[in-house]
Each structure stands twice: as C-alpha cells, then as structure tokens.
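Tutorial, part two.
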Amino acid sequence: MLYKDLSMPIKSYLIHSMDGEKEKLTDILSKMQYCEVNPSTNNEVLVLVTDTTTVAAERELEDQLQSISEIKNIALVSGFDI
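Running the prediction step on this input gives:
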C-alpha cells in the first residue's frame, strides 16, 4: 500500500548498555541517521528517539540497532506514524 511508504514512524526506546559501554553506545547512536540520544546521568540507560522518513527506513534502522553489541537490552516505549 502506497500510503504506508509515505508515513513517518516516530519511536522512543529505553536502552540499557552493556556494563561500562554507555559513553561508547551514546557516541554510536548519536552518529546514526534519524536518532536522538538522551543518556541518563546515574545509570547505564539511554533514551533513544527515532524519527524516520519511511517505514522502510525504520526497518533498516531497527536492523542496525539489533546489530550493536554494546546494547544489553532495548525496549520500545512508544511508537506511532504521522
């Protein structure tokens, strides 16, 4: 369906980094297209907000996130298409 390719998925995630890897993970995610990273000040937790231009771009970004070894756990907090 054509309209699905024109939507813009916006999602937010809570990401727990591997022990001692928060700064490295913050740097990796900050350099990725469509990503905004907000690290916590007291834990190995990051808040990641993604804003992709298409559903296909969102799928590609999800694949990239799954391949990052510094990520211990990732949880989708909310997501919607506009």
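The chain has a mean pLDDT of 87. In part three we will examine how such features are distributed along the chain.
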